[in-house]
Fold:
Amino acid sequence: MTMSPTQRLTVSRGGPATNSYVWSPFVTKLEARLRFAAFSYSRDAGSPRSAPKRKIPYVQFPDATTLGDSTLIIKYLVERDALPDLNATLKPAQKAHDLAIRALLEDKLYFYHGKEKWCDNYTTMRDGVLAAIPWPMRMIIGYIAQRGAIQMLYGQGTLRLQDDEITMLMAEIWDNVEALLQEAKVSRKEEQGPFWALGGKEPTEADATLFGFVVGALVCDAWVPSLERTGQ
Structure:
């Protein structure tokens, strides 16, 4: 199936169908990627229970089919020429660099943030992501969600670390991301327009992911990071 940016799909984002950002970095990543291409889409709250992979975000296409996972959704749209391939002109080393940035954020930082949200600031997290669910059901579903998150974080390895170790590792990631962006900004200082993570003139896939995680960190009330508490 070939899609065009004029064909409307619906993004289920796990929050109100408004222009406001939601707490999930993966929702913001997907929406940023669509906006880079001026791809028209609708928003819907959705629910993990209705999602094809039981997680947010997911999309519904005009023919009512659904697809989950932000990366797979983007790949699907790129393969069908509905979105441009942002990494098409990158050299092999640049593609590896781009993939490494995304993996660092999605497969490492995400879990450190998850510990802060679901363990250290659970009540705020529960009342934020489950705001549409009335009491006492919210308390029950929240407990189930937290238990699942704890099991996942322990199996993944984050909860096998001490708090100060997680803080150190999280600080290392953010410090290096900041240094990367500072370098990219300097490399573009003589030119007009935005700067991008790899220092090029156009965004790559890493920029959508990075934007999602930066916004997610800024807007999520349940993320009161240990970095902030320790003054870093």
The two ends are 49 Å apart (CA to CA). Strands lie at 9-12, 41-44, 58-60, 66-68. The chain has a mean pLDDT of 90.
